[in-house]
Design goal:
The structure holds two protein chains of two kinds. Chain A is an alpha/beta fold. Helix content of chain A is 42%, strand content 24%. In chain A, the strands form two sheets. Chain A has a six-stranded mixed beta sheet, with helices on both faces. In chain A, strands 2-1-4-5 form a four-stranded antiparallel beta sheet, with helices on one face. Classes of the chains: A alpha/beta, B mainly alpha. Chains A and B meet through α2 and α3 of A and α13 and α16 of B.
Chain lengths: 254, 560
């Protein structure tokens, strides 16, 4: 179980994440939703240990992740929002480096890397420098790097970004499969339809604060709205989209 | 019409500013890093050198006041060749910026910017960087020295004529080299297929860098009428443009000597040909290749028949060693710094051997002192260069993977870095020394020298590791650290004499068994002591460093 307790992060006094608390359980996919700048990626980065929270704590299986960060990282898989990679390396070289940094046994790592690259359909390009990879190919490398060590906790920050339809369908099934095998999956996305299909439980952020933390079913009943899009619009969208779009059109026309 | 002109001027100014700053890769700077400070720092280095060069001129001005006859040719030639080398080096560093890359095209193509505006902004920025560097390098010396170079018969007019002549010569000589470099690059870009050009261009850049340094340090001194007129020197003079521009300066200054006439003619022809070649190549590149740049991928998929992935120690050491090796081989920026340092090292060795008038081979049952000097210097330069290059990051945004995969202690990383530097820095030098010694030297002194070099390599690695609590190429760069490069070269220049003494001492001790053993013991003890110190320091390090920051006492007064 991943538990986030009263998490706060301030940048120069401005709150990015403000008193966020939620629980992501093993065997379920937790959707983490919010508009741009609502604090989703900041929370994800705090959960990976990439940035320090201003206050609050994050517990993994009851232990603060700070207690033994190395053991925690061994069990963590993370796909960041942007596909930042060492693009002077080839996909294969990058994944071998990640396996070595994670201290995965050489033959086991090799089998998994080749397998993942084959299943993601980029095995033929494994020796090409990643500088010439498309966004989707880079995303597949990130997914391979995040999954190759069979992590118990998987943090996915907009993992569908850049993927084609076929790869998105595979990833969607894969996330379900991983959750079914007892993994904790925390999944952030703007694709509400995908979230609705995948997640049993959603946390919605608005301006750094949690405005909803429940199962989609219960939220539908409580808010008397049939779709997740409707729930999200009510909780996290401040302005009427039609009004805004009209104003933009007026502005550029003026 | 007027609006169009104003719009184009605005576009030109905007693009010019952007392209000018491309000389420095700003994405590698620390969050605390200020790009203007970095540029200011480079300017300060050049201005300081200029001030240093000015001191002898001031002393001379207090004395004789001018050079009699052709005696001024030596300093004139020195300043011209220094300006040319400086302009050439900046042009080599700016190599990538010569042509619009894919990013430029993808960003600018959808905007209403004409190709000609883009072309002019690129060219202006390309020439501004070397011109500014040459100006900074001569800011003081370019005022004092020309006064000493004035034509003896010119009177007041001679005094007024010498400054523009001097500055025009410096700028024209620098421009000649920039044109020549652009021409070579443009020719390769036009003749070779794009993928091949991209691969060849990196090798060409390193080769041009080494060539510039070697010519600067090793070119013969021919600054006399007799040497310039000698038949045996004519062949080499045809390949040394700094002498052509020495003649050009004297022509502009009104102090022309008959022996300089053909050289001045060659300067004008060279300038014209290089300018024409560069402009043609650039125009062809812009108007013929731009579309091709967008359409073609930079690197085509390739099949590797042999997947070479050697093992280097444990998995962590292997990962760091291979990452270091691949970054050095594939990152243009890192390869350039490496080429620069090693190129200067090689030229010092060549210069030393030439000055001492000795070969590197062994004589009378012992190893030549020149070889001892060369091997010590190359060992120091290789290890220290590796340390300097490792401080320059490759891609800060990609560092997250190193951080989320850190499942071992900082101490383990420290050990792995030590291992990688021994493999990549010490081992190649040791292998070269071994090959040389096996070929030509008596076995006992050879073994003694090999032992000394082995421990010296370890000592140097430990010294470099002492303050290095980061993974190579992953920590942001703080402009203040540019001083390291400057301090390093000042130290090298000061310690050349010391190295010479060390090589002489080693040369005296090596023939005796006791001397050899004693020397090995001293260096080994120093290495072991240093290793203990660096390991103790590493044990205190809990976190690896990914972001350079100024020390707290500099940024705050701690009053909180």
């Amino acid at each position: 179980m991943l538990e986030v307790r009263h998490l706060r992060k301030r940048y120069s006094g401005i709150p990015a994440v403000d008193d966020v608390s939620f629980v992501a359980r093993a065997g379920e996919v937790t959707g983490y939703l919010g508009a741009n700048g609502s604090g989703k990626s900041t929370t994800m980065k705090m959960a990976t240990g990439l940035i320090e929270p201003t206050s609050g704590e994050i517990l993994f299986e009851g232990q603060p992740i700070k207690t033994d960060p190395m053991a925690y990282r061994q069990r963590l898989g993370y796909v960041p929002e942007e596909p930042h990679l060492y693009t002077h390396l080839s996909g294969m070289e990058y994944l071998v480096m990640v396996a070595e940094l994670r201290d995965i046994e050489r033959s086991c790592a090799s089998a998994r890397i080749h397998g993942l690259l084959r299943l993601f359909g980029i095995h033929g390009d494994r020796d090409v420098a990643m500088s010439s990879y498309s966004k989707g190919m880079r995303q597949k490398i990130l997914l391979s790097a995040a999954l190759m060590h069979n992590p118990d906790l998987i943090l996915l920050d907009e993992p569908f970004s850049g993927l084609d339809v076929g790869s998105s369908l595979i990833l969607r099934s894969l996330i379900k499969e991983l959750a079914a095998r007892g993994k904790i999956v925390l999944f952030s996305s703007h694709e509400l339809e995908t979230v609705e299909r995948l997640c049993s439980h959603v946390v919605i952020l608005h301006r750094g604060k949690v405005v909803a933390d429940d199962s989609i079913e219960r939220l539908r009943v409580l808010m008397a709205v049939p779709t997740l899009e409707g729930i999200f619009s009510q909780l996290a969208v401040e302005q009427d989209s039609e009004t805004i779009s009209r104003e933009i059109a007026d502005l550029i026309h003026a | 019409m007027h609006n169009d002109w104003a719009r184009r001027r605005l576009q030109f100014c905007t693009l010019y500013r952007v392209f000018l700053l491309r000389v420095v890769d700003l994405e590698l700077l620390s969050a605390d890093g200020d790009p203007t400070k970095l540029i200011g720092q480079f300017a300060t280095i050049f201005v300081t050198i200029s001030l240093f060069f000015t001191l002898p001129a001031l002393l001379m001005l207090m004395g004789t006041g001018s050079f009699p006859g052709t005696e001024g040719w030596t300093p004139e030639h020195f300043f011209i060749e220094t300006a040319m080398t400086c302009a050439g080096l900046i042009a080599v560093l700016d190599w990538e910026a010569a042509f619009p890359d894919k990013r430029d095209l993808l960003v600018l193509a959808p905007l209403p910017v004409r190709k000609s505006t883009l072309f002019l902004a690129k060219i202006a920025a390309l020439f501004a960087a070397p011109a500014l560097a040459v100006a900074a390098l001569n800011i003081f010396s370019g005022v004092a020295w020309p006064f000493l170079f004035r034509s003896g018969s010119g009177g007041l007019f001679g005094v007024l004529r010498v400054w523009p002549a001097y500055w025009i010569t410096l700028l024209v000589a620098g421009a000649f080299l920039v044109f020549a470099i652009l021409g070579i690059q443009g020719l390769a870009a036009n003749l070779l297929p794009r993928q091949l050009f991209l691969r060849f261009s990196a090798v060409l850049q390193a080769a041009v860098m080494c060539l510039l340094l070697i010519v600067y340090f090793v070119e013969p001194s021919l600054e006399s009428p007799a040497a310039l007129a000698a038949a045996q020197n004519q062949r080499i003079l045809a390949w040394l443009p700094s002498y052509w521009f020495l003649a050009l300066f004297n022509q502009l200054n009104g102090s022309m000597h008959p022996v300089l006439v053909p050289l001045a003619r060659r300067a004008w022809i060279g300038l014209g040909v290089s300018a024409l070649g560069a402009c043609t190549a650039l125009l062809l590149c812009y108007f013929r290749l731009m579309r091709r740049m967008v359409e073609q991928p930079d690197i085509l998929p390739q099949t590797r028949f042999v997947s070479w992935s050697p093992r280097f120690g444990n998995s962590l050491a292997g990962a760091i060693t291979r990452f270091t090796m691949r970054t050095l081989m594939r990152s243009r920026q890192h390869r350039m710094i490496l080429s620069f340092y090693l190129g200067v090292g090689i030229t010092i060795v060549v210069g030393y051997v030439k000055a001492m008038n000795r070969g590197l081979g062994s004589t009378r049952g012992t190893i030549s002192n020149s070889f001892l000097f060369a091997s010590i210097l190359m060992m120091i330069l290789t290890v220290v260069t590796l340390r300097v290059v490792a401080s320059i990051p490759i891609s800060l945004s990609a560092n997250w993977i190193i951080r989320v995969t850190q499942v071992r202690s900082a101490r383990d990383y420290h050990r792995a870095i030590r291992w990688s530097w021994l493999i990549l820095g010490v081992a190649p030098v040791m292998a070269s020394i071994a090959a040389f010694l096996m070929a030509a030297s008596p076995w006992r002194p050879a073994l003694g020298h090999f032992g000394v070099m082995f421990w010296l390599g370890i000592l140097l690695v430990e010294i470099c590791l002492y303050t290095f609590s980061k993974i190579p190429f992953t920590c942001s760069y703080l402009p203040g650290k540019a001083g390291i490069h400057f301090a390093f070269w000042v130290c090298v220049l000061l310690f050349i004499r010391l190295l010479h003494e060390a090589a002489e001492l080693e040369g005296r001790l090596l023939p005796g068994l006791l001397g050899s053993v004693l020397m090995i013991l001293i260096v080994a003890l120093a290495a072991i002591g240093m290793r203990h110190l660096s390991a103790s320091r590493a044990a205190l390090t809990e976190e690896l460093l990914f972001e350079e920051a100024y020390p707290a006492e500099i940024t705050s007064l701690g009053l909180g």
